[in-house]
Design a protein that fits this description.
- The chain is of the alpha+beta class.
- The chain is 41% helix and 19% strand.
- The protein contains seven helices and nine strands.
């Protein structure tokens, strides 16, 4: 019994710590501004938590939105500057505003990928460290990640995702972290977490594309989808 109480108390402390890291003074000011500008009407509850950001469900005119709030601690962004430096859309990057730049980068990437016809949460707006986007899921439950779903036709799902990679590449962008953890399943696969996505001019674009292909081929290989990384890469590039 005491062990159970101790676990509950420990969990409460973890939640308080998470919320204090996410809802700092500047973030609260940004949220207040969004509410006063009627971008959102309310913030409901957390959908997911991560080391860089938490995602909350919000509401606007009876419709749900997703509110992605990046932590303002620069410590979690040390390894992420490599995705920004070298991107011609973001020059003269300074560490002191890297979080705001990252949020803008995700917003721009969502917009670009949406315009290319690849299913991602449609972007609504960005303010400082907060990105507002389309909510993917039902009223009672957010859409599950690919890794948590039972695929009826893995071959078809694989080809659909391969089509997304081809469209994105043809449109000049690489996801950079494509895996079963960054794809939602809601009627069809929906790609998310695109903050790290880079344009083809970025010096790491080819390396990141190869990693995307490796991750997807590896995952679907578990479901007996036979595919060669080399051939998939050539198909994406149109070689």
């Amino acid at each position: 019994m005491f062990d159970k109480i101790e676990k509950i108390e420990r969990r409460k402390k973890e939640i308080r710590k998470t919320y204090s890291e996410v809802f700092d003074k500047q973030t609260l000011l940004s949220l207040t501004k969004m509410l006063s500008n009627q971008i959102i009407d309310s913030v409901d509850f957390p959908i997911s938590t991560g080391k860089e950001a938490n995602v909350f469900r919000a509401k606007k005119d009876r419709k749900y939105l997703a509110l992605k709030i990046y932590r303002t601690s620069t410590a979690v962004f040390r390894d992420l500057t490599k995705y920004v430096v070298g991107d011609p859309r973001f020059r003269n990057v300074k560490k002191k505003n890297i979080i705001y730049i990252w949020a803008r980068k995700e917003y721009k990437n969502l917009k670009k990928i949406t315009d290319l016809g690849v299913p991602v949460p449609k972007p609504v707006t960005v303010r400082n460290n907060i990105v507002v986007m389309e909510y993917i899921g039902t009223e009672s439950m957010p859409a599950p990640m690919l890794k948590n779903t039972e695929m009826k036709n893995p071959e078809k799902t694989f080809k659909t995702i391969l089509g997304y990679l081809k469209k994105a590449y043809k449109g000049g962008i690489v996801h950079g972290d494509m895996s079963e953890y960054n794809i939602l399943m809601y009627k069809k696969p929906v790609v998310f977490d695109v903050g790290q996505a880079v344009v083809l001019e970025h010096p790491l674009s080819n390396e990141l594309l190869e990693r995307d292909v490796r991750n997807i081929v590896r995952y679907f290989g578990k479901f007996n989808v036979d595919a060669s990384e080399k051939e998939v890469l050539m198909e994406i590039k149109g070689e």
